[in-house]
Amino acid sequence: MGHGVWAISHWELALRVVLSVVAGGFVGLEREWSNRAAGFRTHILVCVGSTAIMLLSIYGFSQFSDELNVRMDPARLAAQVISGIGFLGAGAIMRNGFTISGLTTAASLWVVAAIGLCVGAGFYFVSLLTTFVVLFCLFLLNRWEKRFFSVKRKIKMEMKIGCRAGTVKEVVRVIEENGIVIVDMAVNKEEQSFGPEPREPCVKIHLTVKVANENMLVQFVDELALHPDVMTFQQSSSNSG
């Protein structure tokens, strides 16, 4: 398969492909356990594909290494992988209302591609070290982030309450008593309907709040459900990561 630096044995090729399967699989397992769209198989395929392209870029054209007019550039195909993997990352990012998810999965796919390139180039230490760092970030830092930075989770709320003096103040009191921080609030008064059966006029409140944990939010929603002045209530989360 070529001469000198451009030659590699079949055993070495197989070792690099298998190592890329293991490295990509470890990262993909975490994403699979987190129930993400790009999971175990996707990460393995990205890592193996990057390894194969790196091997092709270095050793696939070894028959031309002795040609005087041919200049070997092992990084040429590898450079295209880094930019080309973006289509998978973009597909993993989803937006639903105020919620954006998939950023971590997109980043993990990009890093797995880099790991595959390192394995294909025989850069074993960096590939293994990067795999360890990625797993550390996905497993441990994810738990720490939820514990220490969960207060940054924002909730968009919309509720309709009865148009009675002091009702808005009462709802705000319930929110603050549950330890929820109000970031922004807008109040709109809806006009009374003059149909055959006129409705009671109501006030529509748009809120942006910060909650520290799910238990706090559940307790607050329970209180709203039992509040006599609250007619309807909707919410959608907006995470910071």
From TrEMBL:
Location relative to the cell: Cell membrane
Entry keyword Cell cycle: no
Membrane topology annotation: Multi-pass membrane protein
UniProt entry keywords in alphabetical sequence: Cell membrane, Membrane, Transmembrane, Transmembrane helix
Pfam families: MgtC (PF02308)
Cell membrane listed as a keyword: yes
InterPro entries linked to this entry: MgtC/SapB/SrpB/YhiD_fam (IPR003416), MgtC_SapB_SrpB_YhiD_N (IPR049177)
Family indicated by similarity: Belongs to the MgtC/SapB family.
Name of protein: MgtC/SapB family protein
